[in-house]
Amino acid sequence: MPKNYTRLLSVIFLLGIVVISATGCMPHQTGSTEVGVRTIKWSPFVKSGVSQQIYAPGATYFFPPFFNDWTVFDTKLRNMEMTIKPNKGAHLGPDDLLFKSIDGNDISMDVIIAYRIDPPKAPYILEHVAASNLELEEKVVRTIARTVTRDVFGELKTEDFYVASNRTQKAEAVLKILNDILRPYGVIVESVLPKDYRFNPAYQKAIEEKKIADQIAERYKSETNATVEEYKQKLQQAQGEVNRLVANVDGTFEQAKIEVDAYFEQQGRIAKAIEAEAAAEAQGIEKMIDALNSSGGITMVKLRLAEALTGKSIYLLPFSDGGGIDLKTTDINELLRTYGVQRVAEQNRAGPPQPKQ
Question: Which end of the chain offers a freer environment for a tag, N or C, measured as fewer CB atoms within 10 Å?
Answer without folding.
Answer: C
